[in-house]
Amino acid sequence: MKLKKLITGFVMLLTVSLVSGQVTFEAKVSKKKLGINERLRIDFEMNKDGDNFNPPDFTNFTVVGGPNQSVSNSWINGKRSYSKTYSYFLAPKRQGNFTINQAIIEIDGEIYKTSPISVTVTGAVETPKDGNNADYIASENIHLVAEISNDKPYLNEAITVVYKLYVSPDTGVSNWREIDNPKYSDFWSQNIDIRQLKVQNGTYKGEDYRYVVLRKTVLYPQKTGQLEIEPLSLDITVEVPTNRRDIFGGRLMQRAHKTVSAGKRTIQVKPLPENGKPADFTGAVGDFDFKVTTSKSALNATESLQAKVEVSGTGNLKLFQLPKLNLPSSLEVYEPEHTENVRTNLNGMQGSISDSYTVVPQFKGKYPIPNISFSYFDIKTESYKTLNSNEIIIDVLEGPTTPASNQDITAVSGSKQRVVLNSNQFVFIKTKTNLTPTQKTHFFKSTGFWAALLMPFLAIPLVMVYKQNKDKRQADVFGNKIRKADKLAKKYLSQAKRALGQKEAFYVALEKALHNYLKATLHIETTELSKEKIESLLRKGQVTTQTISAFITILKNCELARYTPITQVEMEKDYQRAAETISQIDKELK
């Protein structure tokens, strides 16, 4: 009886130890039923670290936050407990019953998958108007506004859209991400670069607010009638005050995710008036100057000059055609070279555009370049204006004269000249040849023939040596781990470089690159990657204190950057520091 109890206890202990040593990878959601105006949090949790995490595609949801990564590593009563979680915040796109598919990860060379999860999305639910509810406070204290300079422009008249984010004085914003970008399908558009965001004081609906200009865009409507400007939508991490206080009396802050949208805006585009429209009008709208110039007024035949047609000023410079030069037929003219020197600011396009023609006279004489006209619609006076160039005379001083019957040819292009034929019309055809016989060569029994015949037999020892080396390399489990980690480090460092400007993706890739570099260099597992362990191993490898400190700082930046606003310039600096520090460790490590 005692033996039976002893065996039963041993089996139970063995079962518990086996279960505790198993790898688990599972998905958990904050709720399985939610309103279309609510958020869903999904966590992918594992009890052992892995590589190559691939989330599901979230087809019926918009990712408004994440991936956020958290790691828990502790020892309790001599027993180690490890947990790593990837978290996403999702906003449903429509109502219905949906399935979130499997996530995949590789742990110790094995592939693990989560189970699919079913979620039901219902109609909108009422948000509680609770002063302690972070979502409600965020919705009341943060607003995104699109300010339009003119909602009734003419066709091809410049208007500006300025997107401002208003935040109440006691609310903070730690991060934001664009989730819906306007396409401006019926407009020519140009974004104005904002080098540095500047917080300013202003008012929103009569109350004091702080605001920041997020985007400035210049639009030129290309159609008449009612046109819609699509909304800009942002996912924002907001820090809102609560009614709770700390032990020092300071108000505690609570973090919430909020989606804000500037909403659709409609403008009424007026057509240009038909009354008084010039025949040569090609769509220019604005305020312009017009001129035609030549690089020379006198030259010899077969020499060249440049004739430039130029329009300068403010308006839709890139959206209309320049008038064409009308030149005498005795002047050889090449296709013009188009040049644009245009800058765009909140007043629209400014600068100049030009067509430069290369002109080569063939005969001696004086040739006029007749005046040409350019018409545009002036927004200020709401009327058409026509500008004319001056006539220019090209004086060809030396060169052959035109045939007698055509001495007075100075007409514009389109007039005809008599063709003068050479007395020997077929002089270009060669009637004598210089052919030489070629030698015949035979492949059979040649050097190439014997080489091709013997090559497969000579390759057999090489194939055998290659196979032996391959088998030996595959048997080297430790070496393969190191080589794989080195390959992953290079892969993730390359991903980080491509993701510059995308904060979450950049720092996740950079952190993975640093971890895999350490695994390859220091021959340690992911579970041992504590800062103290890394510092100790680098010191043993005689890496200088300054280099170790730089590497630890980069790791800390990867952890903290996800929760603080980071500019692309700072990302580029972190990437450069990481590359330089890895290179320095390679030089110093012994």
UniProtKB/TrEMBL annotation:
Report if keyword Transmembrane helix is assigned: yes
Keyword annotations from UniProtKB, A to Z: Membrane, Signal, Transmembrane, Transmembrane helix
Membrane-traversing stretches: 448-466
Q: Where in the sequence is the signal peptide annotated?
A: 1-21
Q: Does the keyword Transmembrane apply?
A: yes
Q: Which Pfam families match?
A: BatD
Q: Can you say what this protein is called?
A: BatD family protein
Upper classification of the organism: Bacteria, Pseudomonadati, Bacteroidota, Flavobacteriia, Flavobacteriales
